[in-house]
Write a structure and sequence with these properties.
Strands 1, 2, 3, 4, 5, 6, 7, 8, 9 and 10 form a 10-stranded mixed beta sheet that branches. The chain is α+β, with helices and mostly antiparallel strands. It is globular, with a radius of gyration of 20 Å. It has 2 domains: 104 residues, Alpha-Beta Plaits (2-Layer Sandwich); 132 residues, 2-Layer Sandwich (Alpha-Beta Plaits). The mean pLDDT is 92.
Length: 280
């Protein structure tokens, strides 16, 4: 029987005794060089989790994630899956693996899933939250976990400007030049912008995202909210399909992957979106 472990499709043949396990992961991107394993000196989230799970399984573990996040980007509800022949109680995968994880990463739940489940390809939506601390002075306690903006930002203007980005469009003007996606067309289902005290939260839900897409959207919307550009500028940038027309890329510090949407048949646990200092 031919088997490609953790293959990038949902149609893999499982040998007898193989099981697929999904995990919910929370992490601080501040401590790591992004999610995906690389050759750099600074460790990544993927290799840290694989090392911890491999110690529990006593065999090499390779994982698949729902969405790769960049250096400095956080997650409250990242979803991964891995395949293993090792038989361990759930508490070993959950509590045992957490024991071996470095500061800044935690496994929050475990779920045994069918071979048809795939953390990436079974996902129907991904939701990010971008948190802005809108104050004349920075916060010492929230450094690296929010983006500080001293400008007076008008959220009502941000909401008006964001409406032009809803739906399916060519988002070439909102992706980084290093983006390797073959197709720049994406569908944004929802952009919610709200104020919570001194925090401004931009929540974006889409089927998938391009490289730096959310950060570039926030960069455009905050320039409009600060009165530096008209409301119409968001639509003009979108229509240009030119990254050079899109202004600055917002920092990674305030960005969180907060939800992955799956069909209910997979029974993937649902948790509060976070980050938790927002109280939701």
């Amino acid at each position: 029987m031919v088997y490609q472990r953790n293959c990038d499709t949902t149609h893999c043949e499982f040998p007898e005794g193989m099981q697929r396990i999904a995990l919910g992961i929370e992490y601080s991107g501040h401590f790591f060089r992004g999610f995906q394993a690389q050759t750099h000196d600074k460790q990544t989230i993927q290799e840290s989790i694989e090392n911890a799970l491999s110690r529990i399984a006593d065999e090499p573990i390779k994982l698949v994630c729902a969405g790769r996040t960049d250096s400095g980007v956080h997650a409250t509800n990242q979803v991964i899956h891995f395949d293993t022949l090792a038989k361990r109680p759930d508490r070993a995968w959950l509590r045992g693996a957490n024991t071996y994880l470095p500061e800044g990463i935690a496994i929050r739940w475990i779920q045994h899933v069918s071979p048809e489940f795939h953390a990436r390809f079974s996902a129907r939506s991904r939701t990010y939250r971008y948190v802005i601390y809108n104050s004349p002075t920075p916060s010492a306690l929230l450094d690296n976990y929010v983006t500080w903006d001293r400008r007076s930002l008008d959220t009502e203007v941000m909401i008006l400007a964001s409406k032009s980005l809803l739906g399916e469009h060519d988002f070439s003007a909102f992706r980084a030049v290093m983006c390797q996606a073959k197709n720049p067309v994406r569908r944004i289902d929802r952009i919610d912008i709200s104020s919570k005290g001194e925090f401004i939260v931009v929540e974006v839900q889409a089927t998938a995202f391009l490289y730096h897409m959310v950060r570039n959207i926030v960069g455009v919307l905050t320039a409009i909210a600060a009165g530096e550009k008209p409301v119409s500028w968001a639509a003009e940038v979108l229509e240009s399909r030119d990254r050079k027309c899109g202004g600055v890329t917002a920092p990674p510090d305030g960005l969180y992957l907060v939800a992955i949407g799956y069909e209910s048949d997979f029974s993937i646990p649902s948790r509060p979106l976070g980050p938790y200092f927002l109280g939701a």
